[in-house]
Amino acid sequence: MNVNRKVQTLDEFTIQQLRDFPNATGELSHLLRNIGLAAKRVNVEVLKAGLVDILGDAGTINVQGEEVKKLDVYANDQFTGVLRHGIACAGIASEELDDFVAFDDAKSVKSKYVCMFDPLDGSSNIDVNVSIGTIFSVYRRVTEIGTVVTKEDFLQPGNQQVAAGYVVYGSSTMLVYATRRGVNGFTLDPSIGEWTLSHPEIKCPEKGKIYSVNHGNFFQYNENVRKYINICQNKTKGDGGPYTQRYIGSMVSDVHRNLIKGGIFMYPGTTDKPKGKLRLLYECNPFAFIMEVAGGKATNGRERILDVQPTELHQRTPLFIGSKLMMEELETYLAG
Ligand code: P6P
Questions:
Q1: Which of 210, 207, 100 is nearest to 153 (CA)?
Q2: How many domains does one find in the chain?
Q3: Treating both helix axes as pointing N-terminal to C-terminal, what angle do 324-334 and 223-233 enclose, rounded to 10 degrees?
Q4: In this predicted model, what pLDDT tens digit does every residue of 117-172 receive, in sequence order?
Q5: What is the residue with the minimal CA distance to atom 13 of ligand 1?
Q6: How many CB atoms lie within 10 A of CB 305?
Q7: How many A from CA of 195 to the centre of ligand 1?
Q8: Is residue 251 lining ligand 1, measured as CB closer than 6 Å?
Q9: Using CA positions, which residue lies closest to atom 9 of ligand 1?
Q10: What pLDDT, on the 0 to 100 scale, is given for residue 4?
Q11: How far is it, in rounded angstroms, from Cα 206 to Cα 158?
């Protein structure tokens, strides 16, 4: 084993990015390091989840109308707290909070960024030890620096994102984030408590053999979606198949796998939920940004996810995301 391999930590990587951009103020690097700190703290509790009384419902119901798990609350507090006490974020919006939170102290109002996140996505999987994740999105505020942020700062289309990323708390814990310069993955090295660059310059293969969708909703999907799913089931060696169906029920894990290996993830609208289940601002936009920087595509079935103009913080959207060529084939069916 090459023990002298020079491993770059997240801090070293973000500082190097700063050196490459002399005009940068270092604020975005600072914000990303804050997120890395909060994620390390959440990781400790996720790893213990089966051991201490942190499981089970916190007894409250969140804005989504779902029972809140204690780990959800803990994760939300960690990301909110670290960003509030850092000096690189002027406010946040979270899946766990009804409304956005403005950081109105003298330092924070001078920050040019706002952050939105789903602190612990897939929380229904916590009790059965299926991997879960955090998803985050960073925008430059549109209101005047030095003033308290308003809802306008959060209702920006995804094409305005400055950075986006996720943490997957799994067999190993990874933090992946994208800026317009590229997508890079960091694996937590518990021996030194640092995020270490393990997946530089991630590119999504143009095609793959994995399709991810909840087949339980099959007969609730529209005809064109059902047609495409049938196509996936009938792929042969001669036309890029056979495909395999992989669906964990944890978006971060499903999309992460398809980003690395190639594939397509779908959460279409259904007859019961025409807008689907996933949230635009802090689930679909971040992944759409990451996927596009990595060479893939993401739509709501009609238009590019990143071009959707949000009207409310917790709005839902159908999502189709993944390898470029698989998405282009899907689009021929959705246009049908
Ligand atoms: P379904 C988890 O609750 C989540 O929000 C995503 O992580 C996941 O992709 C989706 O819901 C799974 O939803 O309806 O297929 O169980």
A1: 100
A2: 2
A3: 140
A4: 999 998 778 778 888 999 999 999 999 999 999 999 999 999 999 999 999 997 79
A5: 249
A6: 26
A7: 27
A8: yes
A9: 251
A10: 45
A11: 22
More confident residue, 208 or 58: 208
CATH number of residue 135's parent domain? 3.30.540.10
- Shared domain for 22 and 156, answered yes or no, is yes
Q: Kindly report the CA angle at 57 between 99 and 269, in degrees rounded to 5?
A: 60
Give yes or no for residue 55 having a pLDDT over 60: no
pLDDT in tens, 90-113: 999 999 999 999 999 999 999 999
> How far is the C-alpha of 270 from the C-alpha of 215, rounded, in Å?
12
Mean local confidence (pLDDT), 167-189: 95
Among 164, 173, 138, 325, smallest CA distance to 253 is for 173
**Both structure tokens of 134:** 């955090």
Residue nearest to atom 1 of ligand 1 (CA): 249
The closest-lying atom of ligand 1 relative to the alpha carbon of residue 216 is 15
Q: Is the CB of 121 inside a 6 Å radius of any atom of ligand 1? A: yes
Mean predicted confidence (pLDDT) in 189-203 = 95
Sheet holding 319-322, edge to edge: 244-245, 210-212, 264-267, 319-322, 297-299
The pLDDT of residue 335 is 80
From residue 225, give the alpha-carbon distance in Å to each of 54, 258, 266.
Answer: 40, 19, 9
The domain boundary, picked from 137, 172, 199, lies at 199
292 with 166, same domain: the answer is no
User: What pLDDT is stored for residue 5 in this prediction?
Assistant: 58
Q: Give the domain extent around 261.
A: 210-334
